[in-house]
Amino acid sequence: MSAVTPVLVVKPGRDKSLRLRHPWLFSGAIARVDGHPGSGETVKVVDAEDKFLAYGAYSPTSQIRARVWSFDADQGIGTPFFEQRVERAYAARAGLLDAANTGIRIVHGESDGLPGVIADRYGNVVVLQNLSAGAERWRDVIAQALMSVAGARAVYERSDVEVRALEGLTPRAGIVAGVLPRTVTMFEGGLCYTIDVIGGQKTGFYLDQRDNRALVRRVAKDKRVLNAFCYTGAFTLAALAGGAASVLSIDSAADALALARENLSRNPTLPAERATWREGNVFAELRQLRDTGAQFDLIVLDPPKFAPTAAHVERAARAYKDINLWALKLLAPGGLLATFSCSGGMTADLFQKIVAGAAIDADVDAAIVRRMSASADHPVALNFPESDYLKGLLIRKGV
Questions:
Q1: How far apart are CA 197 and CA 128, in angstroms?
Q2: Contact 334, 365 (CB under 8 A)
Q3: Across 148-154, average pLDDT
Q4: b/e burial code for range 122-159 (CB count within 10 A of at least 16 → b)
Q5: Residues above pLDDT 90, as percent of the chain
Q6: CA angle 216, 219, 224 (to 5 degrees)
Q7: To 10 degrees, what angle do helices 139-150 and 79-92 make?
Q8: Which of 193, 240, 353, 377 is the most exposed place for a label (fewest CB within 10 A)?
Q9: Domains plus CATH for the chain?
């Protein structure tokens, strides 16, 4: 690296996490900054004795003051570095792409050595999120690398998320490279989906639930299914493909339900007459279903992020308990509940305790028959457990 590279000096005794290769350096651990690094600029991080620790991207406004690019003192941080990281991430997922599955996460942030970078491929389009100052600074280089390795027709940016404000960045969305086709589609398990890359949640689809949708597909045969927080209907289509007797799908967003219906129409082999769509507040709808004596053999609860950080956990815990309580009441004896939390602030242990509390309040016996997590294209780096955000439990209600 250049001799003029700014330097962050870590306070004595505050370098343990970096030595364990955790990629975040918090502002409180920094003794001083030598130089005047700009937002996203590469800095060298050293300990109190001036020994090298890492190269990272500087963020002057975030509590995470630097995110590590490399722990290698001989590593150059420039265009070749980002090209190689993107190529490595894509190569690691080569076995997950085929004609039946054309949607995949190409880059999963810190777990792929690219903090703050999320990239999802839907067919021939890549949707990019730059969530950190460093990702923002190298935006164009990363986008071109994604175009190259994925053979994509376009890279569309969806950096329109609140977390960017913590990095001193404003929201941004739009074409970065190429030309966006009129309709973006992908296949998963042989089923076709339309992806709203411009206005959809996250990058347009929940790729992390691929394996769990496959599980629902396997257990859905002849079952009465309830898909709560159905978004664009992916679990619904999976259940229908598995032979479900009926599927009631509920979401509060009319545009999501419209796209869900379109997704069903794109798969004419599925029995559309078995699907019912309902727009409404899921909490209220679950209570109303219970009041009318409805029962289901399989229920999917995949709510939005109730607890993005630990500060939101107490309020989120009540919400998770409520929906699981009502679901367990609606579940027929011997039925299955697939319940999830995508909240980063919610630990797996706490989520299980909340569901257990819901079972007690519902006065039912229940058992965990499987634990679920994100699909293989969402790796969890051993030095960055924070990337293990999706938690799921498959619960069987007692007879």
A1: 10
A2: no
A3: 95
A4: bbbbbbbbbbbbbbbbbbebbbbbbbebbebbbbbbbb
A5: 91
A6: 90
A7: 40
A8: 353
A9: 7-70 (2.30.130.10), 79-185 (3.30.750.80), 206-397 (3.40.50.150)
Query: Residue 72 region, left (φ>0) first, then alpha (ψ -120 to 50), else beta?
Result: beta
Strand order in 30-34's β-sheet?
24-26, 64-70, 52-58, 42-46, 7-10, 30-34
Sign, Cα dihedral of 167, 172, 176, 178: positive
Number of H helices, E strands in the chain: 10, 20
Residue 87's CB: how many other CB atoms inside 10 A? 13
Predicted local confidence at residue 314, as pLDDT:
81
Active site residue 192: no
- How far lies 151's CA from each of 81, 94, 143, 146, 252, in Å? 20, 13, 12, 8, 36
Position 123 pLDDT exceeds 50: yes
Q: CB 371: neighbour CB atoms within 10 A?
A: 11
pTM for the full predicted model:
0.93
Q: How confident is the model at residue 308 (pLDDT cuts 50, 70, 90)?
A: low
Q: Contact at 8 Å (CB) between 205 and 186?
A: yes
pLDDT at 119 over 60: yes
How far is residue 173's CA from residue 160's CA, in Å, rounded to a whole number? 6
- The rounded distance, in Å, linking the Cα atoms of 67 and 78 is 15
**With 70 as the cut, is the pLDDT of residue 136 above it?**
yes
Q: Could you give phi then psi for residue 34, rounded to 5 degrees?
A: -95, 115
The single residue of 342, 354, 355, 359 carrying the catalytic annotation is 342
DSSP bridge pairs for 338: 300, 394
CB 270 within 8 A of CB 241: yes
Query: Six-digit token pair at 71?
Result: 């722990």
Query: How far, CA to CA in Å, does 398 sit from each of 127, 341, 395?
Result: 43, 23, 10
Token reading at 397 = 């209600």
3-class DSSP state of 243: coil
